[in-house]
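Appendix C reproduces, verbatim, an entry submitted by the partner laboratory led by Prof. M.T., so that reviewers can inspect both the input and the predicted structure.
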Amino acid sequence: MTLGDIDVAGEIIDLNFQLLRTQILLEEVLKHNAETMKLPSPEAMQEINEFALQAIQKKYPNMNIAKKEEEEAQAE
């Protein structure tokens, strides 16, 4: 199934694979380094989220992707 120029089914499968692989890798890293790991601050997590959103917006420029809060504010 395609939506515009996006193979939706292929993207979903690819993203699920990447997400699962990343989760497993992160769990292994945390398991083996739990005593010495320092998790990102809330501010750093916000920056990570913003970077990820910008990367998705750049990858799919015609999809009008935004944070839910921004979408709700634009609808009003």
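The mean pLDDT is 88. Additional entries are available on request from the coordinating office.
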